[in-house]
Specification:
The protein is of the alpha/beta class. The chain folds into two domains: 9-29 and 270-350, Aspartate Aminotransferase, domain 1 (Alpha-Beta Complex), CATH 3.90.1150.10; 45-268, Aspartate Aminotransferase, domain 2 (3-Layer(aba) Sandwich), CATH 3.40.640. The protein is built from twelve helices and twelve strands. A seven-stranded mixed β-sheet has the order 2-8-7-6-5-3-4, sandwiched between helices. Helix 4 packs parallel to helix 5 (106-113). The protein starts with 8 loop residues before the first helix and ends with a helix.
């Protein structure tokens, strides 16, 4: 199954369907399932330390940091992209302008919109860099769009933001795990890890640049935000952690035990190999669609969206081919547990 790099993916994945829906939720590898089950059994048995292991959280922090090219001191752990974004949104001065692509994912937009005292502006994805102006305080965008797989010109957006002194926030949820990604190029990144990183739901990451760390207030900081956790269990925190750990949320230990195992698989296989595999399958699907007379949204990401075919999603589901209907289009996504046979089966059903 999947990538020929020496990793036994057949031992890690045994999908009961033709699963082409990673942009909604990735499949948990066997090692992650076993890690969650092991902790659940310990919690149920009431064994010592059975509530969860902070060492696993630190292993996850380090693994994610390596995958996105930053030092672990820039990574905060959490459970939800919306919570991370809410923390960033709270730091933006009243009346400031925040720029988004039209139709980006709501968890990235709503924390800013719901403030009610910010100037929120939208631009077409392809024109995002040109829309940055002297009044723009922050540009927030997904490098790869969830709805249709379109890819932003990230370098151009960063250059425009730098020219106008604007901060940048990249939502890497649909990027991290299949596309080589440098989080250090942005002031902030947020990542939901339950898609391409194959982690359980309840695992997410915030990266914060050194300068930006001074602008965020750890509003949800409990004792975990302290420099010395052992002395911060009761009463006000004396000294905050000196790095992004001050922005940690309390960990969902079941999720983080599974995430430590899942991210070890991503690191074992390697993002470059996953990228080559995923995009090759997507290219095969795009070529097959052209043979059938269908025109997908242009791009090269493993998220392939086809206008006019959204109504075929229930038929595909009845054939045990799991896809999504998004924004009036049929969306199929390809990841390391998929094969050419999966692509051909999908095309065969679409051909009638």
């Amino acid at each position: 199954m999947g990538i020929d790099d020496g990793t036994d993916l057949g031992a890690e994945f045994a999908p009961a369907t033709t699963y082409l829906n990673t942009a909604v939720c990735g499949l948990l590898p066997r090692r992650a399932v076993e890690a969650v089950q092991a902790l659940a059994a310990e919690v149920g048995a009431g064994t010592a330390g059975g509530s969860g292991d902070f060492g696993k959280v630190e292993a996850v922090r380090g693994s994610f940091a390596r995958l996105v090219g930053v030092d672990a001191s820039r990574v905060a752990t959490g459970s939800s992209v919306a919570v991370h974004v809410g923390l960033i949104a709270a730091s933006v001065p009243a009346g400031a302008e925040v720029l988004f692509p039209e139709g980006d994912f709501s968890s990235l937009l709503n924390p800013f919109v719901l403030r009610g005292d910010l100037k929120v502006r939208y631009a077409p994805l392809e024109d995002l860099a040109g829309a940055v102006g002297p009044q723009t305080a922050l540009v927030a965008f997904s490098p790869v769009q969830s709805a249709d797989g379109r890819t932003a010109d990230c370098a151009a957006v960063r250059a425009a933001a730098a020219a106008h002194g604007a901060r940048t926030l990249a939502d890497a949820t649909q990027v991290a795990g299949w596309l080589p990604f440098d989080a250090s190029a942005y002031d902030y990144t947020v990542t939901g890890a339950f898609k391409w990183l194959l982690c359980p739901r309840g695992t997410s990451f915030l990266t914060v640049g050194a300068a930006a760390q001074e602008e965020l207030v750890p509003l949800h900081g409990g004792w975990l935000a302290a420099a010395d956790r052992a002395r911060a269990t009761y009463g006000p925190i004396g000294e905050l952690a000196p790095d992004a750990r001050r922005f940690d949320e309390p960990p969902a230990f079941l999720a983080y035990h599974g995430a430590a195992a899942a991210l070890s698989l991503i690191e074992d296989v390697g993002v470059d190999a996953i990228h080559a595999h995923d995009t090759a399958l997507a290219a095969r699907y795009r070529a097959g669609l052209a043979d059938l007379g269908h025109v997908p949204v242009p791009g090269s990401s493993p998220i392939v969206s086809v206008p006019g075919l959204a109504d075929r999603e229930p038929e595909l589901a009845r054939a045990d081919i799991i896809t999504s209907a998004r924004a009036g289009r049929l969306r199929a996504t390809f990841h390391l547990y998929n094969t050419e046979a999966d692509v051909d089966r999908l095309l065969n059903v679409l051909s009638g």
